[in-house]
Write a structure and sequence with these properties.
- By secondary structure, this protein is mostly helical.
- The radius of gyration is 21 Å and the shape is elongated.
- 29% of the residues are buried.
Length: 230
């Protein structure tokens, strides 16, 4: 076999391996989102992915390795859900304590977050996995807490500290969790909500509506005016 032919075969094997890895990640994400880490068996995983046990072990070392790889992917995409802290800090500074300007920042934050968690099917799966981790923590929860939850709540906490300067930090924690809970419910209970909205799936119109309504109501919930004065 010539070097050229061997090189082509090598690239083909690499591409095939990458495709198998992607399939395992997607299949694993779907199953873990629906059943949680402990609810998914290796037998079910390999059947759904149409691979053998050795393939899972080769790419990820087993079920736990696959699950951790999925969590790593979720952590890497965190800023697709939450705005970067530097952007939030800049907007807070520009608002300079003005309630109307801070209301606009909070409204922007909620809109960014809702479009982030509702627009992509892969992100929907990520959110469901996160919700399952919150309900029934796996051995990997501390990693998710450190690299996903803590920085996310610090970002939201900074915004609430500027918007609600007269309340305690503990009360802001409660408000922050209430806001995130309101938003996540539109992923967790999406079949019921879609039925009530009269759509088979969330489209741009439905996502815009949800983001707009939540943005307005959350600003009022926090005690801010509806928006900037014209």
């Amino acid at each position: 076999m010539t070097k050229t032919a061997e090189g082509i075969r090598s690239k083909g094997r690499k591409a095939q391996g990458e495709e198998t890895r992607r399939k395992l990640l997607l299949t694993g994400a779907k199953l873990f989102a629906l059943q949680g880490f402990n609810g998914v068996s290796m037998r079910e995983l390999v059947r759904e992915a149409d691979v053998n046990l050795a393939t899972v072990s080769y790419h990820f070392g087993g079920k736990a390795g696959l699950y951790e790889a999925i969590l790593d992917y979720i952590i890497e995409r965190r800023e697709e859900l939450f705005p970067k802290d530097a952007i939030i800090q800049k907007k807070i500074a520009e608002a300079n304590g003005d309630p109307h300007a801070l209301s606009d920042v909070l409204g922007w934050f909620v809109d960014y977050y809702m479009h982030g968690i509702l627009s992509e099917p892969a992100t929907n799966l990520a959110v469901l996995i996160i919700l399952r981790e919150l309900a029934n923590q796996s051995e990997f929860f501390p990693k998710l807490e450190k690299h996903f939850f803590d920085p996310s709540f610090r970002t939201l906490g900074s915004l609430l500290a500027a918007a609600m300067p007269g309340i305690s930090q503990r009360e802001r924690y409660v408000v922050g969790h209430a806001i995130i809970g309101m938003c996540l419910k539109f992923v967790d209970a999406h079949p019921v909500i879609r039925k009530q909205l009269g759509c088979e799936k969330y489209g741009p119109e439905e996502i815009d509506l949800i983001a707009q309504v939540l943005s307005t109501r959350i600003r009022l919930f926090v005690g801010l005016p509806e928006g900037n004065r014209q």
